[in-house]
Amino acid sequence: MHKKLFIPGPVDVRPEILEAMSAPMIGHRTKDASALGERICKNLQKVFYTDNPILLSTTSGTGLMEGSIRSLTTKRAIVFSIGAFGNRWAKLAKSNNVPVDKVEAEWGQPTLPEIVDEYLSTGKYDVFTITHNETSTGVMNPVEEIAEIRKKYPDVLWLMDAVSSMAGVRIEVDKLGVDVCITSTQKALGLPPGLSVCSITQKAIDQGRKVEFRGIYLDVIALYDYMQKKAYQYPSTPSLSHMFALDKQLDYILNEEGLENRYARHLEMAKITRAWANEHFEQFAAKGYESNTLTTINNTKGISVADLNKRIGELGYMISNGYGDLKEKTFRIAHMADRTVDVLKELLDVLDKEIAKM
Amino acid sequence: MHKKLFIPGPVDVRPEILEAMSAPMIGHRTKDASALGERICKNLQKVFYTDNPILLSTTSGTGLMEGSIRSLTTKRAIVFSIGAFGNRWAKLAKSNNVPVDKVEAEWGQPTLPEIVDEYLSTGKYDVFTITHNETSTGVMNPVEEIAEIRKKYPDVLWLMDAVSSMAGVRIEVDKLGVDVCITSTQKALGLPPGLSVCSITQKAIDQGRKVEFRGIYLDVIALYDYMQKKAYQYPSTPSLSHMFALDKQLDYILNEEGLENRYARHLEMAKITRAWANEHFEQFAAKGYESNTLTTINNTKGISVADLNKRIGELGYMISNGYGDLKEKTFRIAHMADRTVDVLKELLDVLDKEIAKM
Fold first, then answer.
1. Which A residues, 113 through 132, put their C-beta within 8 Å of a C-beta on chain B?
2. Closest Cβ opposite residue A193 in set B5, B24, B237
3. CB atoms within 10 A of CB A122
4. B13 and A24 in contact by Cβ < 8 A?
5. Structural Rg of chain B based on CA atoms
6. Which pLDDT tens digit goes with each residue over A68-81?
7. Residues of chain A with pLDDT > 90: what percent?
8. How many angstroms from the chain centroid is the CA of residue A200?
């Protein structure tokens, strides 16, 4: 039995998109491949609200996170972490011998603009990273406020992980001034995992050229240069199946559902989930910083989350246990991609009934 | 109109496999995901003739080539190149500041065992790379002979690019003594691009642990450790769609077609193509070293390959021009994956007719 997924990726994918995944192969060095790449990039620019180029990488989001922090840091990076995926930035940097410092907020709390100000004012850094939406804690960062403070430090590159929020929440990349904004397909974009994408500014590209050893496969400069030279083609054979699916899904997002409706639906699902969480448990994320794409819930009743997930699994639903040390202490309900309000309500009803029995 | 692909990847994919690509998503941290990963790895062990673990990477083959040469070289690597994809090993090493030397054979020639002996006998190297099947030149290396010589140097790790041959030609990894053997899905395995796989020996893993900065996403040690700890799961979200398709295709290869029949079909297609090439043109690969999965043909008639490809394109077929500097001087006909002898003959008839008109 297929389980309806309320986990923060992979998400359920609409049948039309799954069908697009199964289109026959084409040559990746053809005009058709260039046209496909160009269409995807131009449509992603609308989703990202950017005029900057978009790069596609046949990796998960982690691949582009590693590629960007490694390829673009010439001096030292500062990672503002609010959870497990924030911490990942620092691990990626260290594993590549990239000098890095990390400021980790108490889990459940956001990155405060004054902390960003404090660290960037030292002048020690030429790169900083922000997690837009932290999948482990369900916190969404106040990026507009961070963008305001950041105006004081325009030369420090801003890398942002928007893996679990882009296309579910409005993120105006150019207006914010983000230099590299990363997402991947298996979250709010509503596709299977296997492809990640990022926007990149000229400033980032110029800085990256000064880094001597950037590797090749994950190097954002190598991706950019090839794409520029070879009309939206890529150095290695990309996942064409994901590109077919992404092409179709972007058309749906932009021209059928519409971005505004998509954001509104995500917000409505978030409000319903938060209300349910507040009624039965409590939210893990600090008030005012709750994510629109997933809700992390404190397990105040001390139920067995594993058991709950097993029970609802038999009924065809799946949620996520807490991440890492938060396992059993919290659990997570993702409400993203093409999930509908009705199916979310179905899940909450099932949860009510099963929790009552426990 | 869909063109029948005779290019060395992407290849045409059987409809049942494309359908498997479109299966609904599952959680990547579930027992179902572990069972899927385990089944794939155990079946790939049969295709690789190895008892060593198999790793899956959501990248193209280049990703695992970069990951392995970077993660496993502690001293210095020697690249035995016979063409463009051999040269790629050296570029990947250099871009990661891995000390590397390269010996490049004249294009069209193989790597001779005595050359391997000469370089490994210096004692300077702890890693060497061999291209099993060079896609730019259509040369297949004499790996059994190389394996014989290599017995003198058991401590030097052998990394092998079998991207364009594995599953089309018998490559007995353990018998040869290859430490890391890499392939990707869009060649003789007959799947869409987007996933690569490798086998890895304990000796390679032990050596890799001594390398301090290996990155994370492409690091074969990180993949291995996670897979061991978490029952065939992976550190980042893998391309589940490719895994569904690979699972189904491996069942077909092993239990429906059978490996022996698959190799025989590839050999038959190679013989037919070589005979055609010898009749009208000549082969680029040195005699005795011709690839079983693709044939590179000297354009002795001086026809316009681009024009020929355009003509046959209008009839629903596609071949490859020469690679890099060999463009127009050569052209390539791939005969791999699930291509049938009949459809290959169809192409050769079409080529005959169109060449006669030119």
1. none
2. B237
3. 10
4. yes
5. 20
6. 999 999 999 999 99
7. 99
8. 16
State the pLDDT at residue A1: 84
Query: Rounded to a whole number, what is the distance in Å from the CA of B289 to chain A's nearest CA?
Result: 26
The pair of structure tokens assigned to B200 is 């890895």
* Residue written as token pair 């998509």: A262
Please write the tens of the pLDDT for every residue from B243-255: 999 999 999 999 9
Residue A217 and residue B218: Cβ atoms within 8 Å?
yes
Cβ contact A11:A340 at 8 Å: no
Rounded CA separation B114/B150 (Å): 10
Contact at 8 Å (CB) between B200 and B228?
Answer: no
Residue the block writes with tokens 């448990």 = A281
**Separation CA B105–CA B279 (nearest Å):** 27
At residue B45, φ and ψ (nearest 5 deg) are -60, -35
Q: What is the mean pLDDT of residues A87-98?
A: 98
Q: Which candidate, A156, A251, A160, places its Cα nearest to that of A197?
A: A160
Cβ atoms A322, A9 nearer than 8 A: no
Give the strand pairing for A282-283 and A77-81: unpaired
Distance from CA of B339 to the nearest CA of A (A): 13
Residue type, A14: R
A2 CB neighbours in chain B (<8 A) are 24
Nearest-CA distance B19 → chain A (Å): 6
Residues A313-329 have a mean pLDDT of: 97
Indicate the residue of A3, A19, A237 with minimum beta-carbon distance to B60.
Answer: A237
Nearest to B333 by CA among B287, B272, B262: B272
Peptide bond into A110 cis (omega under 30): no
Question: Alpha helices of A102-181 — where are they, by DSSP H?
Answer: 113-120, 143-150, 173-176
Q: What is the pLDDT of residue B1?
A: 84
CA distance A258 to chain B (A): 24
Q: How far from chain centre, in Å, is Cα B5? A: 17
| Residue A179 CB contacts under 8 Å (≥ 6 apart), including other chains | A72, A157, A158, A159, A200, A201, A203, A204
Domains of chain A (ranges; CATH) run 4-10+258-357 (3.90.1150.10), 25-255 (3.40.640.10)
Residue of A70, A88, A216, A242 for testing the chain B interface, max B β-carbons within 10 Å: A216
* Helix B61-72 / helix B220-229 crossing angle, nearest 10 deg: 100
List, as one string, the DSSP characters of B73-106.
Answer: -SS-EEEEESSHHHHHHHHHHHHTT--EEEEEPP
Residue type, A274: R
Are the Cβ atoms of B215 and A92 closer than 8 angstroms?
yes
Report the pLDDT value the prediction gives residue B298, as an integer from 0 to 100: 98
Residue among A24, A97, A192 minimizing CB distance to B240:
A192
> By the CB < 8 Å criterion, does A13 face chain B?
yes
pLDDT < 70 regions, chain B: none
Q: How far apart are CA A134 and CA A160, in angstroms?
A: 11
Q: Which residue has the tokens 């790379």?
A: B129
